[in-house]
Amino acid sequence: MKFSFPGKYKFALSIRKKLMLMLLVLLIIPIIGYRDIQDMELFLRGEQENALLENAQVVASVLQNETDLFKTSLENTRQHLFIRPLQSEIHLDGYADDWITYRDRLHYFSAPESADSLNVKFRVGSFKRYVYVLLQIEDENIVYRRSNIDTMVTSDHLLITIENSEREVSRSIISTFSPGSVSAYKVFQKNPDQIEYKIDKNIKSYWQETSKGYNIELRLPVDMVGNKLGISIVDIDNENTREIANIVNTSGSNQTNELSSVVVPKPETNALLFSLERRNARIWVIDKNARVIARAGNLVEIKDPDSEIGLNTDESLSLQQFMSGAIRLMYELILPQPSSSFIDDLSNASRLTGKEVISSLSGTPDTQWRKTSDNRVNIIRATYPIFGNNEVIGSVAVEETSNSILILQNRAIEILVNLSILAFLIATSALLLFASRLSLRISRLRDNTESAIGEDGKVRGMIKHSNSSDEIGDLTRSFSSMLDRLSQYNNYLESMAGKLSHELRTPITVVRSSLDNLESSSMKSEDLTYVKRAREGIDRLANILTRMSEATRLEQTLQQEEKEDFDLVEVIKGCVNGYQIANESTQFEFKTENIENEKDLRLYGSPDLIAQLLDKLISNAIDFNIEHRPIVISVRNNDKSLALSVCNEGPLLPEDIQYNLFDSMVTMREKSGTDPHLGLGLYIVRMISDFHKGNVSAENMQDNKGVCISVEFPL
Amino acid sequence: MSRCIAIVEDEASIRENYADAFRKQGYDVKTYANREEAITDFKKQLPDLALLDIGLEHEIDGGFDLCRELRAMSSTLPIVFLTARDSDLDTISGLRLGADDYLTKDISILNLCARMSAFFRRLDMQNTPSDKDELVTRGKLQLDMNRFSVAWNNTPIELTLTEFWLIHTLANRPGHVKNRNQLMEDAKIFVDDATITSHIKRIRNKFLAVDKEFSCIDTVYGMGYRWKE
After folding, report:
1. Which of B20, B84, B108 sits opposite A502 (nearest CB)?
2. Contact assessment for residue A250 and residue A229, using Cβ atoms and an 8 Å cutoff
3. Is A524 found in the same domain as A653?
4. Which of the listed residues A12, A373, B18, B72 has the most CB atoms within 10 Å of its CB?
5. Residues of chain B contacting A, Cβ within 8 Å
6. How far apart are CA A298 and CA A277, in angstroms?
7. pLDDT per residue over A38-68, tens digit each?
8. Confidence band (pLDDT; 50, 70, 90) for A524?
9. Last residue of a domain, one of A208, A240, A264
10. Rounded to whole angstroms, how far apart are CA atoms A610 and A689?
11. Contact A213, A141 (CB under 8 A)
12. Does residue B117 share a domain with residue B14?
């Protein structure tokens, strides 16, 4: 039997596991870190707001000197047209190919209250000295001029109205007999009845029929376009009556005389703004009606598409590259990434709205965050008023995406996650190492403690003193000293019988010698009876003492005993014969098992001691034997050991005594007989067995009729 | 002239009990409680027999020292240990120091007296040449019943009185198994079985020292010993 705690293996949580659980405390690091990053985001946003505001202020103070910019558009109009530059020259051919990249500049106009639809798509842009216009008109019925019969205005035509900076209004008309390059005619109204047309060479146009209607491409010199512009599309559907069916004006109305204010950014202004531009920021300059006067910069960097190709040329990725790539991919999946593709709501705006715009136009700088309509990017706009003559003449708006913050934030999260993982790994391995060492030491101590005390409760060995100064070392030391004391106490107990008998011998001698003397003197016969009784008593006492000291004496004998080769079976046979003679009332049976040649089974030890051992076993068996039942003595050859067992029928072993039956002063006798029983007999058996490196055991017979005590000697 | 027995024993009751018993037998008895007293007196006058306890008052092995000193003073003086210490080690030590016998206090006064007289008889016979020897011969073994001396193959073997009596009991009836109780009775001692075993072992060793082939004392396990010729 192993002495083990019943729950030793049931505790699912070893120290190691508990310490590992404690590691969860480290989760605080990423949690705190994440909170910190959130704080950092707020801070960064604030910083960005301030930076943008400053930027806006700088731009505003620069522009304050450029009051010319704001002069042009003092008058408010319903529609404002901010003409953005084009990247390349437009080839006037009536096709929309050149305009494909300017899809975001589309303006839609339609005539709402008519049965025949008139839809117009309007795009405008400037390149170098010219303003280009593309009108895509959906018209089911194109009506051209008939030669020489009609006036200019009795066919589908365009009416271009321009108000220059001197507020002079001029009109030009484009009307044609057939598609193709069309000349514009300037309209001079000398009096209400007489209208004169003159070819206007400044305006070039091209009329092209399409599946749905027709396109007109226009080119006007920038100088020509003043403060206001209105292009009216006059639709005539009936070939015969030639009545005007619909009018659509680019100023949003269907009146030909309504104009929208126009701004064509001047190259000087652009250059100025360009010098003030922030990277990945967009600067707007608006007048006091929030109309865009100038614009510079882009929210996202326009990437060179070639730059990305180079990355994938190396087909074979190294493991490190693969790993870092995988980690990057993981982060990109988890973390929101700065997006460069989002819907820019203001790409075509000619007028800015928002509370920060209103606020700056009333003189207070402001900032505002907004989300793009596709929710992919946050955009911040800082506005700063521009003053002229002590009043607000306009405002500067600087816009930026939150991408830079997002990049910083992601970077911080990545660092945080990496550091957390690293800390976790380091802490885990350190704790694991520590815990392993700890549990190793504890289990070693447990094993030592377990093996220090044998199955029988005897101290077998000592625990090595630990030099370690911690609690486990302390525990080891106290176990060690505990075992020391226990073993001293055990020794004391074992030697007590011997010591006691030695101490008692002197007073017994006193009594006995006195009795001897008394007997030899002349005494009355009745006195002699008492002397005889006293002698009986003292003899019994002496007998007890002799038995008590037997174990002690045996111990001394064992120290000096020389071992010899002898035939175990022969010794036991002899002994059994002797017992039969000495105890006539009891029957002894001797049998051997698995023994063919007795001579080969020689034991190395002391035959006298074996005889003494058998004496004790037999005397024990006789004491417990049921009368008239034989005591069976058997020797069995177990190949590598010889088992000697003595079996008797009688009371079974009590459960609680089984393991220390062979200890000093342990007896299972319930009632005391005439002979003293000190429980030393089987202790002597064990001592002799130990001397022969044998193993004693006591067990109930298989049929539970009695008890077998066996000693197994190794051969 | 009566024989003088010196008793060195620190326990007064035992000392006086023995003294009384010896006096009744007609011996002169001198008693000492410790080694110093005894040795001072012995230097003046040696007793005819010394009965020593081993532990004397504060001296644990005082008896052994006394024995050594006495043996130095006289080689013939019978010295007998009478002690409560019954270990083999003490027995061997005592006998090595030249004691003639080593007795434990279990011995009865009657047996003790028998021994004393046996010692004195041996002394007497050693002093006077034997005219009528009482010899017992068993093969190579020769027992002198007066001098309590043993010879094997004509080589004398030094045996204590106890050992002599044991040999005598065994050899008296060869082939007859003597159990331990019979042996104790004949040797006038009262000891446990193991002590008999060690006595027999010692006797065997003494014979073996003279004759390596010696195997006359046969152990009959479970019963006792017998003399095998």
Report:
1. B84
2. yes
3. no
4. B18
5. 11, 13-14, 17-18, 20-21, 24, 84-89, 104-106, 108-110, 179, 190-195, 197-198, 201, 219-224
6. 9
7. 888 888 888 888 888 888 888 888 888 777 7
8. confident
9. A264
10. 8
11. no
12. yes
Q: Which residues of B fall within a CB distance of 8 Å from A506?
A: 11, 14, 84, 105
CATH number of the domain encompassing residue A462: 1.10.287
Structure-block tokens of residue B7: 């008793």
- Enclosing domain of residue A28: 15-39+417-452
- Considering its fold, how many domains does chain A have in total? 4
Residue in B193, B191, B185, B190 with CA at minimum distance from that of residue B168: B185
Tell whether B58 and B117 lie within a shared domain.
yes
Let me know whether A111 and A199 are in one domain. yes
Min Cα distance A605 → chain B (Å) is: 15
Closest by Cβ to A506, choosing from B11, B89, B179: B11
User: Residue B60 phi/psi, 5° resolution?
Assistant: -65, -40
Residue finishing a domain among A242, A264, A286 = A264
B145 and B67 belong to one structural domain: no
pLDDT bin (cut points 50, 70, 90) of residue B5 is: very high
Distance from CA of B170 to the nearest CA of A (A): 18
Q: Is A143 inside a domain boundary?
A: yes
Whether residues B86 and B156 share a domain: the answer is no
User: Do both A475 and A549 map to the same domain?
Assistant: yes
Q: Do B79 and B176 fall within a single domain?
A: no
Residue B67 sits in which domain range? 4-126
Q: Which residues in A273-418 belong to E strands, given as ranges? A: 281-287, 292-296, 366-371, 378-388, 391-401
* Chain B residues with CB-CB distance to A542 below 8 A: 106, 190
Tens-place pLDDT, residues B181-207: 888 888 877 777 778 888 888 898 889
B223: CATH: 1.10.10.10
- Segment A599-644, tens digit of pLDDT: 667 888 888 888 888 888 888 888 888 878 888 898 888 878 888 8
Phi-psi region of A55 (alpha: psi -120 to 50; beta: other; left: phi over 0): alpha
Which positions in chain A have a beta carbon within 8 angstroms of at least one beta carbon in chain B? 502, 505-506, 508-510, 512-514, 516-517, 520, 542, 546-547, 549-550, 552-554, 556-557, 560, 571-572, 574-579, 581-582, 607-608, 611-612, 614-615
**CA distances (Å), origin A706, targets A5, A267, A608, A622, A644:** 32, 122, 28, 12, 17
- Number of other CB atoms surrounding residue A337 within 10 Å: 14
Chain B nearest-CA residue for A619: B222
